[in-house]
Amino acid sequence: MRREDMADLAAFAIVVEERNFTRAATKLGLSQSALSQIVKRLEERLGVALIARTTRSVAPTPAGERLWQTLAPMLRDLDQSLAALGEFRDKPSGTIRITSVEHAAKTILLPAVATLIADYPDIDVEIVTTYELSDVVAEGFDAGVRLGEHVSKDMVAVRMGPDIPMAIIAAPGYLSQRPVPSTPHDLAGHRGINLRLPTPGTVNAWRLGHGGREIRVRVDGPLILNTIELILDAALAGLGLAYLPLAQVDEHLRQGRLVEVLGEWTPPLPGYHLYYASRRQTSPAFRLLLNAVRYRV
Question: What is the DSSP track for 217-255?
Fold first, then answer.
């Protein structure tokens, strides 16, 4: 393969990743017209259209998608191999991309990363928060953070924290208007403030249990939100019951702004784990991250 072919393929890959010529050109340090010419030249050389362009979007054609699926893992492996050369430098360096749920990012990941980048200024970290169970390899992440039970068996998993105490809470004003629930069955008469999951039409079920028996409960309500910070705000405003990590509401409980119900029915969730592909080459920077987030009893 000619050197220019490799450069053109890498440029094409960035266009597909960004789904935008302007952002891709900025990332590559090129003008938009120059990048467009590179893709056009590659298409002419291969004899197929690779990118479908409209006034509003850029997306790979079926041929472009097939090429991207072949290129993406090769380019990631190359990036990892180059990053691994940092072992021969005096200071660990490189960029680490992590996908995480919001609560884990705020309570565990960000504090650990803050210390890491302060101690190693040549390391960059990108954290993307989502509740979607991401394929870290296909989506170009170095690692992901999820509850232990949601980690695929073919991944290496490192526990980041203990199990997570949960609580069902509401504002005193809300509970003054309705009977306080004493069993999960009583939740049918209440309004739930629910967390939207990425799958269309799906909200997070509340995990309850007692005496070794576990059930999943969905509490209907007029309000569905996609961050737990907003759910907490809505609960404080008296808009319904919410199912949240106890640590997030503990101060409000102590101050009387919220009240916990069904405490004996609310077991902890499995702790967060950082997971990554077992075949991944771990760079010095990534190994430092693993050490920073690893849970120690």
Answer: E----SEEESSHHHHHHHHHTTS-EEEEEHHHHHHHHHT
User: Can you tell me the distance from the alpha carbon of 117 to that of 96, in angstroms, rounded to the nearest whole number?
Assistant: 11
CB 167 within 8 A of CB 244: yes
Percentages helix, strand, coil for the chain (3-state, rounded to 5) are: 45, 25, 35
Indicate if the pLDDT at residue 3 is higher than 60. no
Q: In 10 A of CB 195, how many CB atoms? A: 22
* Cβ pair 223, 194 in contact under 8 A: yes
pLDDT in tens, 217-261: 999 998 999 899 999 999 999 999 999 999 999 999 999 999 999
Instruction: Find the DSSP H helices in the chain.
Output: 3-18, 21-28, 32-46, 62-84, 102-104, 110-119, 172-175, 228-236, 246-254, 284-293
Q: How far is the C-alpha of 138 from the C-alpha of 274, rounded, in Å?
A: 17
Note the pLDDT tens digit of each residue in 64-122. Answer: 888 888 888 887 777 777 666 655 566 788 889 999 999 999 999 999 999 999 999 99
Confirm if 166 and 244 have CB atoms less than 8 A apart.
Answer: yes
The Cα–Cα gap between 282 and 94 comes to: 12
- Verdict on whether the full-model pTM lies above 0.85: no
Positive or negative torsion for Cα 5, 6, 11, 17: positive
The residues facing 34 across adjacent strands are none
Domain annotation for the chain: domains and CATH numbers:
3-84 (1.10.10.10), 91-159+271-293 (3.40.190.10), 166-265 (3.40.190.10)
| Residues 75, 57: Cα–Cα separation, whole Å | 24
Angle of the 21-28 helix axis to the 32-46 helix axis, nearest 10: 100
